[in-house]
Known about the structure:
alpha+beta; three-stranded antiparallel sheet; 7 helices; 60% helix; Band_7; Band_7/SPFH_dom_sf
Amino acid sequence: MADITRRVGWRHLRSAPTAHIRHQRRGRLVHDGEGLSFWFRPLTAALSEVPVNDRELAMAFHARTADFQDVSVQSTVTYRIGDPAAAATRLDFSIDPDTGAWRGTPLEQIATLLTETAQQHALDVLARTALAEALVDGVTAVRDRVTAGLAAEPRLPATGIEVVAVRVVAIRPEPEVERALRTPAREQIQQEADRATYERRAIAVERERAIAENELASKIELARQEERLVEQRGTNARREAEENAAADAVRAEAEAVRKVRLAQAEAEAAREVGAARAVAQSAWLRAHAEVDPATLHALAVTRAAENLPHIEHLTLSPDVLTGLLAKLGEGGARP
């Protein structure tokens, strides 16, 4: 929308670079071009503003296929006004000299023209196409047919409209039909998923079996190793017992030999001691045989006295002392 500034009796218009302005005064063209800025009198000016930039027109409409199935078509048409002068003469692009707003609805007229034209060609294509084919190849077919139909439409060049591009976003059937069409594919996908699940489970079972077999083989091998270990331990124990028995036999034999030798030595020593004692006894007997009996008596008394307890004090009564003295006197009187 043009920017209009109000002054007393005058107006100033300033347009955007994407807007084509046509200023006529008393039927004569005064200003014509894009991005203009000028003063004018509102009472004598006839202004038109035609946008020259690219515009997007979204369209959605229903169609029926060859097998009588309803589908919805979503598309977008990009257009521009290539001939602003022709568009201004065919459509009402006039603007209010006070506000700069369009007096009519030219863009809605263009949208209606493009929509009806595109819909006519799309319906013609889909009416000859089955639903399955329309869902697979319908987007390309409808786009090509709509592009060709808009290019061949004579009203568009006469109105100054140029179609830049046509895009068909989607062709969709009714929700119930779409769900029905999705069912086989979903079933197939589910079957593939189930098959993959079964295969995964089978692989898991096979792996578990392999693991169990490996564990069993490990246990068997471990049992064999334990059996070998027990046998080896028994062999070692037997060898150790045999070695100990041999060692004990050697020690017993050595001990017996030692004891025999010791007994022989002790017997020899006893014989020697006995012989020595016999010799000494014989010599003692011979010595006593040659001594006087009185001397032997004295020796016997001496030996007996040696074995008597020790007497520190001896008390003699006068009678005993007198008797002893008398005996001593008698003994001393003997020659």
